[in-house]
Amino acid sequence: xxxxxxxxxxxxxxxxxxxxxxxxxxxxxxxxxxxxxxxxxxxxxxxxxxxxxxxxxxxxxxxxxxxxxxxxxxxxxxx
Length: 79
Hints:
Layout: H1 2-12, H2 15-45, H3 54-73
Helix pairs in contact: 2-3
């Protein structure tokens, strides 16, 4: 029932608003992934996790996610 209400609410939004909200959700998800990669890199560096070349790989992953995200979607909203 709640799922049906959410679907209906989503569908009444104009397409441009749906697109804006979707892009922002993807941007936030990508930023969360990048932040988690950096946190893992720090944990490896301080010795909480064993180091097998991970910190630099995680930082590279974070940079790629951020670069891909900004290139693909650009800024959202009106400033």
